[in-house]
Specification:
Two copies of one chain form a homodimer. Chain A has 509 residues and is α/β, with parallel strands linked by helices. Chain A has 17 helices and 20 strands. In chain A, helix 2 crosses helix 5, helix 2 runs antiparallel to helix 17 and helix 6 runs parallel beside helix 16. Strand 12 of chain A pairs antiparallel with strand 12 of chain B.
């Protein structure tokens, strides 16, 4: 039996990989601890983590503190913003005698709101399950093999925040565990800073960082959030887009009306909202709001060169997503994320499907998010949209319109601006940036992809403001993770590769 | 004390009302039985009645049979359509020896679907409660006074179907009870026919009527559904609009996408749906679908004269509904309901409010209802809408598009046509129509309003087809009943007046 296995091994052409590199040691440790790691991660994912759910946010924070203490981190504590009833950040550190540099790792442990009804049968946001592949490709819920048996790395773990961004929190702590358990020691000081309300727009992060400025002081911020490239290749991002959300509500009659007795006569707010939303973008997706693309800082020569490292992959993504055509009139995805965007996150008026009734709805609502690039200012960008609404004849108000306002203005739009922030970007040619690039490149045979900016957003402008240091994003999760949507998931191989990536960054000298 | 009351009575100028008219007898009976009547009606309303909920539909039907038997109706039975698992109609009759005429009363006991989350705090669709007035005017949930104490007729009963249309079922049976308990006997045969799936579009009513054609044979159909005029005046309608529902779904990527990583590039189905809906109507609400207003039969001279009996009330309704402007470029409500309409009943894409997430939704859905007038054909009207969608560049399909279709067509709209039916109208100058007009006019000092058609819909074309006889609608409920929406309610005075109206029709000679 043993002989047969050996022969198969040789026949397949495998060579014994080197076992003495830092990467090999992390891999070996992980391979012999997969069941324990996934059991612990599943426990973590089972704790609901919407930022507004304070009791569960507290349970998440306590769980993270336990994980930190078990791994021997020092100075483990909650960092409060000083505003009552807001999610704390969780902090822990590794003090290295004689260190000349401090690297601080950021991730967030809260997740996007969930609508369990939209998740697939048997898959619920806070009841982690394993599938033997991707749900979209027909994979099924499957129990893990018995402890000691190998786990197929193409399997996936389904739960809210499995990818975004408990994978960052857990991946960092597991990477550090793998380093120390295999006798490897960082030469820098390491700090871990895990936020609890990123998905709510980080409304108190500025206050929190200002309050704990000394504790957080660092030479480099490593941001562990977001996916690797759609091709599966590792990538680094040197910036993030800014983001701001607007909730729009338009009004019909003060109560829903019978569509027979009032149809044709009472205005329909769903139609009004449709017309308003339709006026925002043309058929190619270009935003029609006046001046929307002004203010954009041009890319530097180095950033343009970095963009050229991004593989041509749009056709594959279109096929994967069942898209016959994309917005932007043929421009590439990587070009488009270097522009400000306007997206409809959701819209609703009365009910559809089985709950639909023959009514003229009373209101209609849409949620927009505006992504911002370097040069945009969030308040200015919002003001452009408000000016556009007014140009469509709308009376715009920030609060619920009164009876008198309703009777005075045929067209009313309530615009609620949620907390937002601007874009941020780190220069690619900083010496420390080069060190990170080299460390991560050493963990992969493929050419590392360098993004001047990620399409996603993080409140890195606050880092710049309160604890200034270069910020570099080191993402680890699979691109098709359904982050923010239903059926969020993490491909196990991405977690395993991620441990090696993050451990390499922790060993920077 | 008694003397004081008597003096107040005289000082207020009241005269003792006549006590010997049929109307006075019905009123006196009702006044001494209000508590019993409302207790029984509340029990009836507590049974959920969405047509797809077969177990509860069965409980409603059994409850109605009991009410019929208690009132001495003959031949009480369920009428089945012959299609398994479809709501039965409930039938009962009063055979009058020597009668030369049969009058059949129609109402429906099912109600529109409900979304309990949209109802006001403390008010749930199937837990009837009394409010001391209208919710919109600040009324509160209030317990009824003790038995024997008078009940303010401005109070309202809140529950799904309180107005539409258990009020028809219960009002008819209570009116008959009041007649017989005060010794009054109809000279005609009376039949009661209560449908159980009107709000689902009466998909089996034709089969059901065809099957029980002999039992249902009649000289006159009286339809008890819909509200009295907004002014509070009694009205009769001689026709109904037809109705057909369309569910539209448009598509983006096959899964929801992170709005940062894919925004600007992946098409947004909410935007596409908004553009499609916006293309259907102009800013005044006029439908832009080609030929939409063709096929409309003009009103007869008599019908135009009848329309002139409708009071000018639009300004009052606008004020009540907080509407600064109405659709139709200034045309009156009563004119507008004599035209075909296209209404958005509901629309949804991903989530709004607290459940909103930063995603590009995967699909967007809208439900339309098309009201039809005499001359329109439902299939032809739907085809016009489909042609309009195609003209906007959409590939229209009746079924879920496949991967191949999604990859082949940039714009896809799934159109699901739900069951529908055409409009129906009875001539105003038929002798029996004149009898009904005279009977109802005798119960009110105000001039009776005569509508050639109601704005609402009922499948009366099926009556014409299977059990032909003139159909006249005799509505009783308040206009501001929120029928089809949340917080549906019945004003008690409307029920009380309704008993007198319906009893008068039962006594037609």
């Amino acid at each position: 039996m043993k002989k047969l296995l050996l022969i198969s091994w040789l026949m397949c052409g495998f060579q014994t990989p080197p076992t003495d590199t830092p990467q090999a040691k992390v891999r070996a440790y992980r391979q012999s601890h997969e069941h324990q790691l996934l059991a612990e991660y599943s426990q973590f994912l089972a704790i609901p983590n919407v930022a507004s759910d304070m009791p569960n946010i507290g349970r998440n924070a306590a769980f993270i503190m336990d994980m930190m203490k078990q791994r021997g981190l020092a100075n483990v504590q909650l960092l409060e913003s000083g505003v009552d009833n807001t999610p704390p950040a969780v902090f822990g550190e590794v003090r290295t005698p004689g260190a000349t540099r401090t690297i601080t790792f950021y991730a967030h442990y809260d997740g996007q709101p969930v609508n369990p009804a939209q998740w697939a049968p048997g898959i619920q946001p806070f009841a982690p399950v394993f599938l033997n592949g991707s749900l979209e490709k027909g994979a099924k819920i499957t129990a893990l093999p018995a402890s000691g048996q190998p786990i197929d790395p193409e399997w996936r773990l389904y739960a809210r925040a499995a990818a975004d961004d408990k994978a960052g929190v857990f991946g960092l702590l597991a990477a550090y565990e793998a380093l120390t358990k295999t006798g490897q020691k960082p030469t820098a000081n390491l700090k871990f800073f895990f936020e609890g309300e990123e998905e709510a727009g980080s409304p108190h992060l500025g206050q929190l960082m200002a309050r704990h400025r000394e504790l957080l002081k660092t030479d480099l911020w490593i941001i562990c959030d977001g996916p690797v490239h759609q091709s599966g290749r590792k990538q680094l991002s040197f910036g993030v887009r800014g983001d701001v959300n607007l909730h729009l509500t338009v009004y019909g009659a003060r109560r829903p009306l019978h569509s027979g007795h009032y149809g044709n006569w009472a205005p329909n707010p769903a139609l009004r909202l449709a017309k308003l939303l339709a006026s925002l973008k043309d058929d190619t997706g270009r935003v029609l709001v006046e001046g929307f693309y002004d203010d954009v800082d041009p890319l530097t020569e180095l950033e343009r060169q970095a963009l050229a490292t991004v593989p041509e992959y749009d056709e594959e993504i279109k096929k994967e997503l069942w898209l016959a055509q994309t917005d932007g009139g043929g421009q590439k995805l990587v070009e488009m994320i270097n522009l400000p965007s306007l997206n409809i996150n959701g819209m609703q008026s009365a009910n559809v499907g089985d709950m639909a009734a023959n009514v003229i709805p009373a209101t209609a609502t849409a949620v927009l998010d505006l992504r911002l690039v370097r040069g945009n200012d969030q308040a200015r960008q919002v003001q452009k949209v408000v000016a556009h609404l007014e140009k469509q004849g709308y009376f715009v108000t920030a609060t619920e319109p009164t009876e008198a306002e309703r009777l005075a203005h045929p067209l009313i739009c309530k615009v609620e601006k949620k907390s937002g922030y601007n874009a941020q970007r780190t220069k690619l040619d900083l010496p420390i940036a080069k060190l990170v690039i080299a460390a991560v490149q050493a963990t992969t045979k493929d050419r590392l992809i360098l993004h001047p900016t990620s399409g996603g957003s993080l409140p890195l402008y606050l880092f710049e403001q309160h604890v200034p240091a270069p910020t570099i994003s080191v993402p680890i999760v699979n691109h098709d993770n359904n982050q923010h949507g239903e059926n969020e998931n993490l491909r196990l191989q991405n977690l395993w590769d991620g441990l090696e990536t993050l451990a390499a960054v922790m060993l920077i000298k």
